[in-house]
Amino acid sequence: MEWNPLSRPSMAAIVFIVLIATGCSDEPAATEVSAPAPEPTPQAVSSAAPARSDQPVAGRIRDSQFTMEQAILNGGTLVLRQGSEFFADLAAEIVIFDENPAGKTFSVPVEGAGTTPHLRLKKMLEGESVPDQQTLMSDYQVVLAFGESETLGVPFTVELTAAKSQTELYGSGFATFGDIKVVDGELDRHYQSLDTLRLLARQYAAENYPDFTVGTAFGTTLYTNGTANPATAFVGLEGGASNDQTTTLKFQFRMGPNGWEIANELAANQIHPAHPVLTSLEGNPRTVEGAKAEHIAGQRFESYLQQQLLIDGTRGTSLRCYLTESADKASCRAAANIETGDGSDCQRQNYLLSNQGSEWVYESDLLPAQSVDYKSGKVVEGRGPSKYSCSA
């Protein structure tokens, strides 16, 4: 579910950011928490705006000390996080089943009719790569009060006790609309998150394309590019023009001294892998050569989509090249989500490239399960692409 910054964005917690060697992307899936099936709105009453507090929410989660570092409101769920990694060290998620909770108070136990909010308590255990989760639908008490909505989020206060789970939280905070950060009331443009990029793209479109009505974002991709190079990113926007025609805007970003900035605007018939923001990279030679190979493969994939008259429906692209040990050959996989009248389709192409010293050149197409052997450079049969996602 895409978040309009004037109404709602995505999240820093589960489902899918693909953290890859060069970056992360929300295609084909969005960067959001999986929300429960829609249920009746829980009992809520109007409340006065909670006073801001210099002290964030603090206490214990599953008998571990907790100090809130980030609060995110996402699709009817308030997420309180501690930890800077993709998966929080500790987190409490209060599912209130209300996407517009401003000015309301939610409590458990519920008095009278209404749906009881759910509680998810997450803790990263030693030696594990994903957090352990406890889900509570009873045996806890909470009073959660939201203030009036602001541009980037909403203030709140919370008192929560779950004795059997050794959890106790009290305090106030400001929940942002999606995985963004706010500093002195302003959006932190240096924060590297997909939601930050989407919001900046929407703001740029509103300022520079007044006749464009933003619908949804697509293909949001973030490239960290290593420590020696600035981060780059892509965001596509689909929306309506003044003539009621569906159209797209495609923006490329670069991290500058003042944060994310627009580096380039692509034409509707272009894809971002064919037009990298950085013309050259510094750092590990294999990373540098890999980026060169992906550029050539991206150009060929763009040409294919144009020739097949698929480019207008392209909404998300990904591309990955696998180099041999000597970096003399590469097998590249490209994938694109295509919007059709009946839904969506996944188009894939696979290429064999060779390194001519000064540049990479296309040699031939490959079958979906083919790739170059790391040692010998010969084309070998391997595993084909996933049937469950449209990614390279």
Give an overview in words.
It is a single chain. Helix content is 10%, strand content 42%. By secondary structure, it is mainly beta. Among the domains are: 32-178, no CATH class; 293-392, no CATH class. A hairpin with a 4-residue loop joins strand 22 and strand 23 (360-365). The relative contact order is 0.11.
What would you call the shape? globular
* H/E series: EEEEEEEEEEEEEEEHEEEEHEEEEEE
Structural class: mainly beta
Give the total of beta strands. 25
Mean pLDDT: 87
Count helical runs. 2
Question: In short, what is this structure?
Answer:
The protein contains two helices and 25 strands. The chain has 392 residues and is mostly beta strands.
Spell out the key features of this protein.
2 helices; 25 strands; 392 residues; disordered N terminus; 42% strand; single chain; mainly beta; twelve-stranded mixed β-sheet; five-stranded antiparallel β-sheet
Walk me through the topology:
Elements: E1 23-25, E2 44-46, E3 58-61, E4 64-67, E5 70-74, E6 77-82, E7 90-95, E8 104-108, E9 118-123, E10 132-136, E11 141-146, E12 153-162, E13 167-177, E14 182-183, E15 186-187, H1 194-208, E16 213-223, E17 232-240, E18 246-256, E19 259-266, H2 285-307, E20 314-323, E21 329-340, E22 343-355, E23 360-365, E24 370-372, E25 379-381
Parallel strand pairs: 5-13
Antiparallel strand pairs: 1-16, 2-8, 3-4, 3-13, 5-6, 6-7, 7-9, 8-11, 9-10, 11-12, 12-13, 14-15, 16-17, 17-18, 18-19, 20-21, 21-22, 22-23, 24-25
